[in-house]
Request: fold
Amino acid sequence: MHPPDASTTAENHPPHSAATHARPVSPNHGTLTPLGLDEVRLTDGFWAQRARINAEHTLDHCQRWMQRLGWIDNFDIAAHALTHGTEGDHRGPEFADSEIYKLLEALAWESHRSGDADLDRRFTELAARVAAAQHPDGYLNTCYGRPGRPQRYSDLAWGHELYCYGHLIQAAVARARTNAADDLLLTVARRVADHLYTEFGPTGRTAVCGHPEIETALVELYRVTGQRRHLELATLFIDRRGTGTLPAIRFGAAYFQDDQTIRDATVLRGHAVRALYLSAGAVDVGVETGDRTLIDAVRTQWATTLARRTYLTGGMGSHHLDESFGADFALPPDRAYAETCAGIASVMVSWRLLLATGDSRYADLVERTLFNIVATSSRADGRAFFYANTLHQRIPGRIPAEDEVSASAGASLRPAWYSVSCCPTNIARTLASVSGYVATRDADGVQIHQYTACEIRTRLDDGTEIDLEIITSYPHDRSVAIRVLTPGYFGLTLRVPHWAQGTATLDAGDGLLAQLDDPTVTVRREFAEGETLRLDFDLTPRYTRADDRVDALRGCVAVERGPLVLCAESVDLPAELDLEDLRVDLSVAPQPSPEGAMVRVRRRPEPIAWLGGWGPYGYPLHQLDNDLVTDGGKTAESSTTAHGTVLEADTAASAPEPDLGHWVLLRPYHQWANRGPSTMRVWLPVR
Amino acid sequence: MHPPDASTTAENHPPHSAATHARPVSPNHGTLTPLGLDEVRLTDGFWAQRARINAEHTLDHCQRWMQRLGWIDNFDIAAHALTHGTEGDHRGPEFADSEIYKLLEALAWESHRSGDADLDRRFTELAARVAAAQHPDGYLNTCYGRPGRPQRYSDLAWGHELYCYGHLIQAAVARARTNAADDLLLTVARRVADHLYTEFGPTGRTAVCGHPEIETALVELYRVTGQRRHLELATLFIDRRGTGTLPAIRFGAAYFQDDQTIRDATVLRGHAVRALYLSAGAVDVGVETGDRTLIDAVRTQWATTLARRTYLTGGMGSHHLDESFGADFALPPDRAYAETCAGIASVMVSWRLLLATGDSRYADLVERTLFNIVATSSRADGRAFFYANTLHQRIPGRIPAEDEVSASAGASLRPAWYSVSCCPTNIARTLASVSGYVATRDADGVQIHQYTACEIRTRLDDGTEIDLEIITSYPHDRSVAIRVLTPGYFGLTLRVPHWAQGTATLDAGDGLLAQLDDPTVTVRREFAEGETLRLDFDLTPRYTRADDRVDALRGCVAVERGPLVLCAESVDLPAELDLEDLRVDLSVAPQPSPEGAMVRVRRRPEPIAWLGGWGPYGYPLHQLDNDLVTDGGKTAESSTTAHGTVLEADTAASAPEPDLGHWVLLRPYHQWANRGPSTMRVWLPVR
Reply:
């Protein structure tokens, strides 16, 4: 982190040339500079495939649904009201505007990435409909502030007006960075930002929006325009959060992070998406203002949240009721909320911290979350989406009808659309810009954070050209080849994921294998054209156990392979095996298989007190007989023995245990629920 | 069960004499006849004390709050609208009327039980205000069906109109059974029932209410009035449920049990209170119509629900979001909803099944639920109430202000009132009639189901007078003395709770101790005046383990003592011990103490991968090293050993384990949160 001297940042920065900054986050300071969509071109492999499905199906899918439901027409109605003073309906949730904005952001990235003229035209058409609804003073919202609708800013707690602006600005920023010539939406965004400065700036009302998002957006707008007052307003919103300007609500002030200031908090809490968007904004403000206290506060919160409030998949948020983080270690797999948007927001935060600090552990979490949350949400065809990402499905999930609008986040397998449909458009904009999260550069060279087939072409500040080709089927293949296309002297830094440290190897071109024990490895030398480095990961599947304070996971293991969390799904089981009856035999290591892994299991003994339906006493709880417990003075060994004796007594009292061993197939979690209704477990009890 | 011959029940039954039936449930058929409030007089002890606090504090508390919030005034406003055609506001939730009705029911029972003229006067005054709001055609609801309010029956899914009638009828029935001379509310209830028969009867609309309750109420009204059409309408509602007459809602049709007919269902599902009220009504209809299929269906559902979807406390319902039962074995203690009203409804169902079948296991669950849910809800002073009854409080609960209306069920320790305040008035009516759940009679004698200090005076059908005095401090005392006050030949049946079978003893007056192995023991002989039987329970505290399919409870034990579930509360711990760090040492039996039990614990080893805040890699999940797992061919013993080796490796890698043993005090769960903010656990991990 190299924060600018305060005296030099007091003036407006000159805007960067947009053409070279086609990237979601474009900080003026920090340790690493992100490579944009022009610099990292996905060629094939895991993320190229997902980006392709996104481009071919998801963008169109989102636009059709919003057209069908009237969410796009809202802008026409609002525009008509503006010019004719008419009343008019509003369709969809109060924040429906933001879904159009997220689609616009996705169209901006994707039209640039692919050069698809049709996508470009759709952006322009949609942007014009949005622009027509802007009030003369810059206000823009189709749900509020016009005849027959509630007054503007009359419900800051729940109205989402500033949240919607945030996504509008992000769409405008994406367009400015990819097609600077089409500046209509940027003009709209600048007028919005000026209006906001008047309303909420130093001389306006002391307030914040119930849903953060405007903060990070204003900083990005500042990065495009160089207008210092955008950053100033973002800083005000960050400083005001936690000072109790929002009204009391049912879920408490922590729900929208108004219980503590960002600098005071030590862990993320409340509504997960809100908490994470706010954190992204706080890092952005900290980076641009040089306020290290903000960055350090978010680093602390990130670390604590990861250690205590994060699912194995990278999912965050365990409460369905208020979509919030639960208490420390309250991570039940079967009631995991782990909203897709929270996963995306977590990637946003981790990426910003990586750029600010250069610490590769942030890229570790980006990888975990991309493969196990972002890749999980979409159905294989990109036309249906998980909102909540459970780690345990006990009852075969229902497959919704293709024309069904789901009213509930966790009620079925992936539906095509939701009445609150934040996740599909969030997936769309993220996959359209996913190549922007692969690599960075600094003064010495290039850092590769995510391994996926791509071509990297960039130029260091000293003019050194670096052209690389990454050839890999990772995470399905253990090898990553990095081919140098242009000779030169530079540093090449490769991330070694947490799970690979100590087992990954690097052949730096000399045929010798170096074992990689550290979080990163850097090769700095004169590279020849065509030279190839080969990184090799040990993709042996591995058992993973949770901190024993996570109640629901005691006595369980998960199986991971490389960066992928695996799961057992009922459709892969022999007919005679119920998923709930599997007990992993830990004496046997999990074996690799082309689909994922094979795990040796036994069936659980019949429960001693179990009764289906009416029979003898049906209580599910059986008692330890205290006769089996001997008083006092025993050693730890005999404690274990006493416990074991009791369990044996249980077994003896029940039917003879069927001693059948089975090999059970586990597949990547992100693939689950693509083959009809099924039950599923990530965490498997051990024998 | 002796169901009546269908031909004899086609005519109206003559009403019972109300004076002898001062009891909540008064079936015309079945195995056991409940003893009413006149027949069982609480003298002292656990339930007498709670009934006293209820009478002295809770009834007044509820009335004052509803007066303050305008819920009682709603009736005056509605009455004025009726006579003057005025518009008028409505305060509180759409079902606020039902809270006044539950208070009326409580006042009816309590004024009779205590003979308190002030309570009697308050009933009369409130009933008059209710009566004034009844429409000429019998309709009565302050939220619907008047100028400025939504139309009557315009929202059967959520409007609660029939639910409100149900509680109105129950209040009228309670009054009819305790003070037949004051028949104003009964008249109102009969007009309501006639109106309902027109609207929803055989020639009316084919519909049900989104919230069951009317079914059981109509059967009780039939039991008072003998009017066959009340029973007929209840039967229609029972038969219609599950046929999809309600609209689609976000939570699915199972939420209000409209997914399956009662006869088809094998387990309770959806909203717990709705499911249980409906079950109570189904048993009532089955008993009065002789339809054994209904009773058998509820018996099956009860057994399955108890085995798979019930907390140790008897609590039911694990979802906060939709207040529903979760899937089988989805019983996380920290997110237990276990609504107080669901506990009360469970007592209603179990009591009905006990009366119908005579099977004492139903009384076992009544006992478990009374001591661990009903007794838990109220604060010690009877002026604040739990709505949700968690089994694990991870963060010290907040104590709400005395004038705070809680908007959320699980947001704090017991608040004085809720915006949705169903539980306090439900507690009020239940504690005012709790003596009605103690004992029954049949042709041969008396059955005692709940042990609490009381006097029992009843007369069998053959004229035999039975007068008994029960002397006990149970559950705090192991002994129950039963003194015969009037000599005679009769049978005396005593329930032996599940946990006491095999250890309880009976001295039937001959000085010999008989060990009781069965669920009940009956002594039938000529009893002399003053003769005393003595029942003795083994109240040694005991460890209890859960079915290992309950994910969150693997590797945990609870401690029970008699019918009481115990818990550890942070205020009882030495300052150096964190509740989350306790690990029970199972080699040592729990020891009795005057407050509950003492349990030997050790502190958990420091976690290997645990990091508070920022430090080395903060991920909460540590990996099993596959090197420690040997491939193939091992026996069960070596499996355990391999697992053990891994754990030892973990321990070795961490700080040396502090080998401090501690005795930790556990107290009855129902007492928790009466001594300031604390953390609490029922289920304790084992070492």
